[in-house]
């Protein structure tokens, strides 16, 4: 069976370095550290800084590998102050960084992403959560011929135990296709394997969903919970940390239900999280039960919505979705 140990080592190092930058920025976040992109979504100096750190790291280790990453340096045209702050943050991680090296690294992320082997990166997933001082993730994955084969999902602010929100914080979920998911601390030491929970009773499931009602339909999730007989409140959490919660056995189900017709999920919002859950023994499909298709380019254009679970309760969730679809599917 193929292994990607060189890629794994480089990806872990890169995500740890970028997570440091993100935490540095988060701990003294101020108003000038973010702006609105053309699509009106927020982006911060840490999103750009994280992308620069990771893509320059990968460029050194694997110069021929293209990358599909969320951020685009073109959005920084004219934003002189923001650019300078990004460079300053990257220099705290890599003192040799220059304006040219930072912009070049960010722009390495603009591959269209269909053929062969490429990386996909969300330098900060859950930017809205990051700005609220809630959860966020640094999500990096390697795709070969449409298949996610390796991933490092950095969750720098995720408590080790969700019941103790102020306990030790930060972990990485590291996965390789057919080789499982491992949990590392933010210093790069392996802590344990990750396994989904062993709950077979849909009614006893903990469900997690997005904080943002514009990203996942909350009233539909509530209707599904009721069908399943779930009595407890769902956990609302930003970013791919929801996949981490399922992979670690903190939750049995992650629901992401479309809020508007035609929205196509981005590959960088799901590649790392999906592999983390599948390699921890879980299952990930779209809301109709189809596997997520990473061979379509930058978006999951063949899919709609996402369901991740511990495997055992998956079919019950798909059935509850099918039974509530007529009432809740946006059209
Ligand atoms: N209408 C929509 N439906 C689903 N996801 C959306 C969306 N608009 C934006 N998103 C994505 O939702 C991600 C955050 O997920 P969550 O809500 O689970 O924290 C965003 O990632 P970024 O924060 O990286 O931009 C963004 O790509
Ligand atoms: Mg994202
Ligand atoms: Mg992002
Ligand atoms: Mg974004």
TrEMBL record:
BP-aspect Gene Ontology terms: sulfate assimilation
Annotated TM spans: none
Swiss-Prot/TrEMBL catalytic activity: adenosine 2',5'-bisphosphate + H2O = AMP + phosphate; 3'-phosphoadenylyl sulfate + H2O = adenosine 5'-phosphosulfate + phosphate; adenosine 3',5'-bisphosphate + H2O = AMP + phosphate
Keyword line: Hydrolase, Magnesium, Metal-binding
Broad class of enzyme this protein falls into: hydrolase
SUPFAM superfamilies with a match to the protein in the record: Carbohydrate phosphatase
Positions of Mg(2+) binding: 70, 122, 124-125, 269
E.C. code: 3.1.3.7
Cofactor(s) in the UniProt record: Mg(2+)
GO terms of molecular function: 3'(2'),5'-bisphosphate nucleotidase activity; metal ion binding
Family: Belongs to the inositol monophosphatase superfamily.
PANTHER family: 3'(2'),5'-BISPHOSPHATE NUCLEOTIDASE (PTHR43200:SF6), PHOSPHATASE (PTHR43200)
Protein name per Swiss-Prot or TrEMBL: 3'(2'),5'-bisphosphate nucleotidase
Organism name: Cerasicoccus arenae
């Amino acid at each position: 069976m193929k292994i990607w140990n060189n890629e794994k080592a480089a990806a872990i190092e890169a995500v740890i370095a970028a997570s440091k930058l993100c935490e540095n920025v988060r701990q003294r976040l101020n108003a000038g550290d973010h702006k609105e992109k053309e699509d009106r979504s927020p982006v911060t100096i840490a999103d750009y800084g994280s992308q620069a750190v990771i893509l320059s790291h990968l460029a050194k280790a694997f110069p021929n590998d293209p990358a599909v990453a969320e951020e685009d340096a073109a959005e920084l045209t004219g934003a002189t102050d923001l650019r300078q702050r990004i460079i300053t943050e990257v220099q705290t991680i890599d003192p040799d960084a220059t304006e040219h090296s930072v912009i070049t690294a960010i722009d390495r992320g603009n591959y269209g992403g269909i053929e062969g082997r490429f990386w996909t990166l969300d330098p900060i997933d859950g930017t809205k959560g990051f700005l609220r001082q809630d959860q966020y993730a640094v999500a990096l994955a390697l795709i070969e011929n449409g298949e996610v084969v390796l991933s490092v999902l950095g969750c720098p602010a995720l408590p080790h135990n969700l019941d103790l929100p102020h306990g030790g914080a930060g972990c990485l979920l590291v996965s390789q296709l057919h080789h499982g998911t491992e949990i590392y601390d933010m210093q790069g030491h392996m802590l344990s394997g990750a396994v989904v929970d062993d709950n077979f009773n849909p009614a006893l499931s903990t469900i997690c969903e997005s904080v943002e009602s514009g990203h996942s339909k909350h009233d539909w999730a509530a209707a599904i919970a009721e069908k399943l007989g779930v009595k407890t409140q769902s956990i609302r959490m930003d970013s791919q940390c929801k996949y981490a919660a399922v992979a670690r056995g903190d939750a049995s189900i992650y629901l992401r239900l479309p809020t508007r017709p035609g929205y196509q999920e981005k590959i960088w919002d799901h590649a790392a999280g999906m592999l983390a859950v599948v390699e921890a023994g879980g299952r990930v499909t779209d809301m109709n039960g189809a596997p997520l298709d990473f061979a379509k380019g930058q978006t999951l254009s063949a899919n709609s919505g996402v369901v991740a679970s511990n495997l055992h309760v998956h079919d019950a969730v798909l059935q509850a979705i099918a039974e509530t679809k007529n009432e809740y599917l946006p059209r």
